[in-house]
Structure formats: C-alpha cells, structure tokens
Amino acid sequence: MGFERITVNPDRMGGVPCIRRLRIPVATVVGLVAQGLIEARIVTEYPDLEVGDIHQTLAFAAAVVDERSCRCLPVLEEVLPALSMSKTGWRLRSGHPAGRSTTSSTRNSR
Questions:
Q1: What is the full per-residue pLDDT of the chain (110 aa) written as tens digits?
Q2: Could you tell me how far CA 67 lies from the centroid of its own chain?
Q3: Which residues pair with 6 in a beta bridge?
Q4: Under DSSP, is residue 84 helix (H, G, I), strand (E, B) or coil?
Q5: To the nearest 5 percent, what fractions of the chain are helix, strand and coil?
Q6: CATH of segment(s) 6-108
Q7: Quick check: 104 and 78 in contact, CB under 8 A?
Q8: Taking a C-beta distance cutoff of 8 angstroms, is the pair 59, 88 a contact?
Q9: What is the pLDDT of residue 76?
C-alpha cells in the first residue's frame, strides 16, 4: 500500500508526517481515533480531512509500528534517517536531503 496522502515537509510542522501537505499531523488523527472519535466527528472537527485520510493515517501508523513485516521498510528507509528526537518529539533533521515531501511516487519507484 502506498501512502500518497502522507507527506513530510521540513518547512511545515517541524517535518512531522502530516496529511496531504496540510498542517494536520498523522499523530493528531491517530490520537483522535484512540480517544474513540468516529470518522464523521473527525471530519466535522477537521473539515479539510476526508475519510480516506483517516484510513490511510491508520494504515501508515500500523505500518510504522509493524514489527512482524517489512511492508513499511521503503517508508522507514526514506523517513527514519531524516528524523531526530527532540524534547517535543520526532523532527526532521535540518539540512537532510529527504526532500520536501514523502509520497508514494518516490517510494514506489524502488
């Protein structure tokens, strides 16, 4: 599965994975789902989101934490070297050549 709705931009939100170049981090949506909010409520609270964004956000989160499979390996190979941990969470390392976004087109070319 590609993650064309998930982008990483060092100039937005400190480089954390966001949804469709919006200023809505993946972690925010995962947190809302974890709190028990249903899709309809999330898209009401965040009108720029689509239900497909929520589904892909959860799939992305599952792939990142999936220890039993290498399905997310291309994503991790591209994103993790560019990240560093700070007091406030993961951030894109300044000057890293990860580019402006992480899209399926770059991952699917491998």
A1: 688 999 988 888 888 999 998 999 999 999 999 999 999 999 999 999 999 999 999 999 888 887 565 555 555 555 555 555 454 555 555 655 544 444 444 444 33
A2: 18
A3: 19
A4: strand
A5: 45, 10, 45
A6: 1.10.10.10
A7: no
A8: no
A9: 55
Residue 102 pLDDT: 44
Are the C-beta atoms of 65 and 18 separated by less than 8 Å? no
Structure tokens at 92: 């894109």
Nearest-10 crossing angle of helices 26-34, 51-65: 90
19 pairs with which residues across the strands? 6
What is the SS3 assignment for 19?
A: strand
pLDDT of residue 105: 40
Task: Give, in degrees to the nearest 5, the angle at Cα 1 between 29 and 14.
Answer: 40
Give the pLDDT of residue 91.
55
| Separation between Cα atoms, residue 36 and residue 92, nearest integer Å | 29
Give me the residue spans of the domains in the chain. 6-108
What is the torsion angle, in degrees rounded to the nearest 10, for the CA atoms of residue 69, residue 98, residue 91 and residue 81?
50
